[in-house]
């Protein structure tokens, strides 16, 4: 249950301490700390390229070169035990275009619940997932003939099949019209409230922030803020989360500039104070 202030409880569904990820020759996540509380919707927001997908890939265990501590549902990220407990939907819907919606789900259900004995379980899970994402009227359409939004809902249905404890959704509402976006967010809230599922949902659209219980605001591989939307607005004296975000960006830039200036000043002072003969030492 969410407490009155929406504060995160002491234990998290995801706990990161000093989480660093290197991609290529660059640290894309730079020693970040954050906690995602269980049973709530946490929004991961930040501009394109700030590291949201990288963070999600680390959480689901598909990212290489991860250091620091990252615990997911009480296990180290990537642990084999977590595979069936996490649903992950990437930005590119992974569905088979030449199968219908129903056949796609039947296929994934057969992988999740194999064997004749589990036939009924498969049938119930498939019907429920199709209803969850509101695709009953398209159940027998080929996935390749669906709109982008409908295809991403098929991916979401696949992720819901195993009733995961944690759902990690990478920009699930991108390109959707406002009505579909609203419907999807209502679905996320139903999933969290009815099933106690933890959701980590990324977006680069700040107005989606208001729909989350808690937010992780990211920028350039760092966490700028970890808060509820209300507290974030209040603390930054801002009318919207977007304004609060911009305020935090400006403050971070000012701090970085100050630190840069101080480093240059101390370097210059060091040079001035250094005896001349030191300059020639190897
Ligand atoms: N395979 C890769 N090798 C090296 N660097 C990469 C690779 N993939 C991504 N990056 C870099 O990592 C950084 C973070 O990328 P990431 O995809 O996590 O960002 P994002 O916040 O999810 O962006 P978007 O909202 O556009 O999806 C980017 O600066 C990107 O250039």
UniProtKB/TrEMBL annotation:
Entry's transmembrane regions: none
GO molecular function ontology, one term from the record: ATP binding
Keyword annotations of the record: ATP-binding, Nucleotide-binding
Cited CDD domains: ABC_DR_subfamily_A
Residue numbers spanned by region Disordered: 256-282
UniProt keyword Nucleotide-binding present: yes
Keyword Nucleotide-binding: yes
Listed Low complexity bias regions: 262-273
Gene3D superfamilies xrefs: P-loop containing nucleotide triphosphate hydrolases
Top-level taxonomic group: Bacteria
Pfam families per the UniProt record, alphabetical: ABC_tran (PF00005)
Record-annotated ABC transporter domain positions: 14-245
Protein name: ABC transporter ATP-binding protein
